[in-house]
């Protein structure tokens, strides 16, 4: 469990955290989302007792982090995968961590095996790819078999196999009743793994609820491809639909406000040939972008495409 | 505390640079002392027995310490500086959230490393130096030999702890070396050269601390115990300031 109450933090006159409150419950994976500069990392550092809030409190398992008797056995955190001495091997890195809590050396081998670093265990971290560092960071977080996991951008740099492995791992940990808080910018990935979504922007909670609720709040759309698009467009607009060009070639539009069935009927009435008619479920990425639109701190100056959807598609 | 200390020990010994630096420091100290003793040897051996005490054969043997200590200082600085430089400090504090405990463990381990290094290096330097000089056993009273060898250990412990504490204050290896190297290398020699500032120079950490390894005493010099106490005071003040800053700062 994580409990954040009315956190306020100001850096150089800028309010990074603005009366931020939320609660993270056990037994599920909570995605912690927000644009760059929204205050995610600052929040995580406050939770870990590494930063000092101007006011408010952050507790883990009911107490401030610093008061945990054996922190690594309660909380496993991956805050920054590159925060390892480059000349140290994974085994030595996990070795000193384990020693602080008298964790048996066998457990070090166990987590190395779990994250797939056994063969690289004695090599200096210097030569590791980001993905391997992430694996080491995840191993460090799991070392004390903690009830609570806090993972900041753990999927960055993982290969597809690693991403799938990580997804399964998150699921398993949450199903065992642990609390899992994962921050990421990879919306598609979060939509697959999260049960609960917490979105912050400009230091405030923008949305906090189950993934399903959030997705239901989004607008379903229908992808339509037709050779007689102009004629269709008129009929659809008359029926109250909104059309978005998807920047794709040959007569593809995204229709909102009408069901696929209604669109099909309209096409039949108009005598228009339809080449594709696909209902599109609202995507987390779209909902997220809408939520954070006003709150985004560092956005590209001029959007180079018309529709947001295509920006997201390009990124995914 | 024991666990934190043991963890720091694993950190230190898991870096290949640690033995390399310690060995370099030892060799530099011994060889510099040896060279000086070989150069002074003929003059020392020619001198009348009454004048020989002015040479301080024991103190001369340790004269490489001033140079060799730099490797120890670099080790201490890197040990603390790399925590901040790589953000590993966050992982360290996640595992050992008590700032006082973490800082104490780190500095204690550095002091212990410095102690072991000082004892070993001091003994080797004394052995090589006095033989090169050709000092007679009567010129090497056991009490002085023991006192200066222990003094070398104590000096290593305190200077290493002091360097670690300074790095905790400035948080960057480069900044810490920028303060410590000129202080240990230039300032004390420069101040020492000027007679008006000599009194002040005697109170600098290295000048005061090196008295621990000297026997001969000139008028105005601190006593070995006094010198050791001054260095201890420097180190304690540095550790205290380091804690005051570190306990307040965000990482």
TrEMBL record, chain A:
Q: Which domain of life is it from?
A: Bacteria
SMART domains of this UniProt entry?
A: AAA
Which family is it part of? Belongs to the ABC transporter superfamily.
Membrane-spanning ranges: none
> Where along the sequence do coiled-coil regions lie?
none
Source species of the chain: Streptomyces violascens
Q: Which CDD domains match?
A: ABC_BcrA_bacitracin_resist (cd03268)
Task: Identify the stretch annotated as signal peptide in this record.
Answer: none
Oxidoreductase in keyword set:
no
Which UniProt keywords are given for this protein, alphabetically ordered? ATP-binding, Nucleotide-binding, Transport
Q: Which residues form the ABC transporter domain?
A: 2-227
Q: What is this protein called?
A: ABC transporter ATP-binding protein
Single GO MF descriptor = ATP binding
Q: Does the keyword Flavoprotein apply?
A: no
A Pfam family per the record = ABC_tran
UniProtKB/TrEMBL annotation, chain B:
UniProt keyword Transmembrane helix, yes or no: yes
What protein name is recorded for this chain?
Answer: ABC transporter
- What sections of the protein cross the membrane? 20-41, 67-86, 107-132, 152-170, 177-204, 224-246
Q: Which UniProt keywords apply?
A: Membrane, Transmembrane, Transmembrane helix
